[in-house]
Amino acid sequence: MALALQNTLRLCGWRAPAGALIAIALGTGLALAQSPGSPSNPSHTVSVEAGNQYDRGGIWRTLFGNEWREVWSAPITVPVLDLDTYAGGLTPFKAGGNQTKTLRLRGADGRTYVFRSTEKYIQKSLPDDLKNTPVGAVAQDQAAALHPTCQLVVTVLQDAVGLLHAPPTLVVMPDDPRLGEYRSDFANVLGEIEERPDDAGKGTPFAKAEKINNADKMLENLEESMD
Questions:
Q1: Each residue of 208-224: pLDDT tens digit?
Q2: If residue 114 lies in a helix (H) or strand (E), which one and from where to where?
Q3: What is each CA distance from 224 to 11, 42, 66, 181, 196, in whole angstroms?
Q4: Between 20 and 30 A from 96 (CA), which of 58, 86, 116, 124?
Q5: Closest by Cα among 192, 195, 224, 225 to 209
Q6: pLDDT grade, residue 25 (50/70/90)?
Q7: How many CA atoms lie less than 13 Å away from 200 in the CB half-sphere?
Q8: Which helix (H) or strand (E) holds 48?
Q9: pLDDT tens digits, residue range 160-193?
Q10: Longest dimension (CA), the chain
Q11: How do strand 75-79 and strand 90-96 relate by DSSP bridges?
């Protein structure tokens, strides 16, 4: 069961975030987490494409598949994240990521948030001798097999069954001086922002939890319990 769940998430293109977790809540029981507010002024939106580089012609599609190319290249209207007001104000402090760009931010509400780019950088995980080669380019193109906003679809399913999670919000990171040293890497990047429950900081614990395990630990515990 655990492996089936893990494979489903991978097929969906969903790198299990900290929000996919088990929380042992006190008092009120399990309840859906609430977003810390609107990501921006409602009038501050932009039209973007998640990845128009995946919009390939007929021969390429015959060889490497249609995948989700139409979705990646479709223009969508997305709010711009307001670093001054979201969660009372956000301050970035750590960048990272494997196949995505990730940026952790501290909110004035005492919680920690994580922003993940929608774009996947497959070549980063390839052996050095395959990076920036035709083989690497084809591997990168196959990111089109991953739905760019699948995590938002999963969130709707989680809501429908009452599963505790940290809901992501699709936003564009602003070109803002508050990004500091991270500005060149993250300005104008499309991605999702969500609370990072396993890093509660000085705020109220996520869902008033006594203990929080991330998705990997939860799956490990589940597999061990089935032995």
A1: 777 777 778 888 988 88
A2: strand 112-117
A3: 24, 47, 39, 42, 25
A4: 86
A5: 195
A6: very low
A7: 14
A8: strand 45-49
A9: 999 888 889 999 999 999 999 999 999 999 999 9
A10: 59
A11: unpaired
For residue 110, give the nearest of 26, 36, 23, 211 by alpha carbon: 36
100: CB partners within 8 A, 6+ apart: 15, 116, 117, 118, 119, 120, 121, 191
Residue 40: its pLDDT value, please?
Answer: 55
Q: Quote the CA–CA distance of 114 and 104 in Å, as a whole number.
A: 4
pLDDT above 80: residue 16: no
Cβ neighbourhood burial of 77 (10 Å; 0-12, 13-18, 19+): exposed
Look up the pTM and report it. 0.73
DSSP label of 203:
S
Structural domain boundaries of the chain? 2-225
